[in-house]
Amino acid sequence: MLYSAIWRALPGPTPAKAVQTLLLVAVVVAFLFLWVFPRIAPMMPFNDNTVGTSSSGGATRPLPALPAGETA
Amino acid sequence: MTNRAARWVVGGLGDILVTAGLVLLLFVAWQLWWTDVEANRAQGGTVQALTRDFGRSSPSAPAAAPNEHPKPVKFGEAFAIVRIPRLGEDYARPLLEGTDYETLKKGLGHYQGTAAPGAKGNLGIAGHRTTYGRPLHEIDLLRKGDKVIVETRTGYSVYAVDRHEIVSPFAVEVIAPVPGKPGAEPNGSWLTLTACHPKYSAAQRYVVFAKLVRTYPRAEGLPSGTLDVPGKKS
Questions:
Q1: Ordered domains of chain B (ranges, CATH)
Q2: Which residues in chain A are contacts of B196 at CB distance < 8 A?
Q3: Where are the alpha helices (DSSP H) in chain B?
Q4: What is the pTM of this model?
């Protein structure tokens, strides 16, 4: 329904509609790839490669007894 | 009328589900493919920049024990190049200070507070097994004796792989100054690589321990053959 409504709303003959559709898809994919996904990825549990005292979120403290003075 | 309303609801629900499915598929593609594309480009650039930078540094710097007391490296800054011939002739990845999410996107991460390259103690390094350039994708190919070379401004520290272990994500003792023996006083120099295990999961950690063979000052350079791929005739 949503997609057919968009298709109907696009002006011009079928080839013109197809080109506009591709453009719209490209814009949506770019927005997801460059803006949305990089922001939700840190919350995913499978992006962690370190050993540490907490396992999720990626940002782990290596050892509890490390010297201070870091800017993390 | 009710028929039409029902069609609206079912149709709208279908649209939402189809869209959600497409977005999830796109997310998988982004995570498994696009992050590699972006990270490989960025990490290659960092290695080039480091190489240029190292080449410029003054050769008059004192050569004795170059890495024992290095200047502190700022969090998130690249300060070394890691080469692992077993993972490819051209395998070169930047090593950055810190192991948080943002840092590991840009290369391998140096566990803060662990030893400096070539220094006594244990140089702890984390890296992605999958996604974000996956520098340690093939960490399971490393065999005893394989070289891990850490190049810094002052020289090259050559480590040789000793053994591997698969541990829980909480096994912080693997990056202790003496690997596996927290609290023990180090009498040698170790390097520890940690990555996800199994691939595409973060349930465990694949850990490789390597022992320092020798540190070569930059002026001396690496002996020929150090960067040869093991088992491959050149």
A1: 53-217 (2.40.260.10)
A2: 46, 48-49
A3: 2-29, 35-56, 101-104
A4: 0.82
